[in-house]
Amino acid sequence: MYQVYPRSFADASGDGIGDLAGIVDRLDHLAWLGVDAVWLSPVFRSPMRDYGYDVADYRDIDPVFGSLADVDRLVAEAHGRGLRVLLDFVPNHTSSDHAWFVDARSSRDSAHREWYIWRDPAPGGGPPNDLESQFGGPAWTFDEPTGQYWYHSFLPEQPELDWRNPAVREAMLGHVRFWFERGIDGFRIDVLWMIAKDDAPWRDGPITEAPEALPGLGLEARGALQHGDGPDMEARLAELRDAADAYPERVLIGEVYMEPRRLVRYYGRDGRGAHLPFNFALVTLPWEAGAIRTAVAAYEDALPVGAWPNWVLGNHDQPRVASRVGAAQARVAAMLLLTLRGTPTLYYGDELGLPDVPVPSERSVDVAGRDPERSPMPWTRDGINAGFSVAEPWLPMIDDAGAWSVEAQRDDPRSMLSLHRRLLALRRSEPALEAGDWADVDAPDGVVAFERVAGGRRFLIALNLRPEPVSMPVAGDWTVELSTHLDRDGEPVADVVALRADEGLVLRAG
């Protein structure tokens, strides 16, 4: 999977903002890179207070990105290259500009009033309780004309839908079917755990402490859990899965910030849930060998029978991996992501090793400060704005963008881009790496090691997370298939493998 943040990928219209036509123009890069599917962050019509995660119309495209015809063209062009297309579906809340909410605010007796969550003021006045939104401030906003508060986990302009209402569920599932009918191959479902409430709107108290089930997660993720993960979750998952299964080869991916024991609930009862509930362990945990080894083993152990794992290193909400772990370890992280068992998801620009880009306060636009990880993609070595747009980009580009560009790195056999392409090609060519068994391997401190095995083929992955060399004992004879430094192909290894500082190796048995 390859995530595109459309505003920052490629601008064909010349207004400084990426669009669907720009994505079409760059599909050859994704096919050349070797990915299978592209997931687009929201492109539905929106006032863009939360940059598309506040949807005003689920069946139309925001003009900044193009039109329905542009989506159809993107799907056709992608399918012609063997790529699948997924959209970002935001079912937990709408924009306050959505026709449903406009009607809901018109009267307590309006047709859509019970589609949202409303409560009377507290007995002494003010919000029903002091639950906080994830973007700061109360999770309740007062509607003076009707005398009640509406509930929102995020911005006040993102009112929460009440999925306990059958009319809401049918309407949202209708949107899912609409896009499947247009040829969309699946959805990444935003904050999936929130559509089944666990009485959070009626619980007093701000979010201050982490539930035991969420070690290592930040305040935002901890708070989010208290807004959802309720007892009706399995039923909601089954309804979504039924909608997907009515069409051939469709996939549902769920955003779920939880530790493994809780995350696996989202595969659904008897597998009637999300195909891939996102696993964010590599994003939220410290970049330490012990923590990673423990997390991988715990996840593998928690998976239900027949469930397929997945891994994520970054996305539009998190600092980029190169900024979290450094440029050298970002190469090691890429090897980890693309050799673990399960479907990996790449965030656009991570294949170039892009770090977060500093954004001056006067250029900052995101309510939650997530601009640095959303910087525009550099495409060309020369030219205006490294080929992203002929106009001033909506966010600052990285300094010396041409040197970071796809064009510059394609010509460098040891670039980060070349490493990603070789890892993806190796994964695709070797069943053991694509879908084989996984087993942890004892390793020195600071090293993550595991084997992948299938059909008589056996690979050892050894990843040095330390800035100094380390030697690791190995049993039998091995050959270096790939180094993160891209300079040891075919080197024989016996008894001991020498890992250089910040180096990862894929070794083939025999």
Q: Gyration radius, to the nearest Å? A: 23 Å
E-strand count: 19
- The number of distinct structural domains comes to 3
End-to-end separation in angstroms reads 31 Å
Instruction: Please list the strands of the largest sheet in the order they lie side by side.
Output: 11-10-9-5-2-1-13-12
Number of separate helices: 16
CATH architecture label of the largest domain: Alpha-Beta Barrel
The multimeric state of the shown protein is: single chain
Classify the beta-strand content into a percent band.
Answer: 15-25%
CATH topology of the largest domain: TIM Barrel
Shape: globular
**What structural class do you assign from the helix and strand content?**
alpha/beta
Q: What would the average pLDDT be, to the nearest integer?
A: 94
Please describe what this structure looks like.
With 510 residues, the chain is of the alpha/beta class. Helix content is 27%, strand content 19%. The strands form 4 sheets. The chain has an 8-stranded parallel sheet. It is globular and about 75 Å long. Residues 205-224 have low confidence and may be disordered.
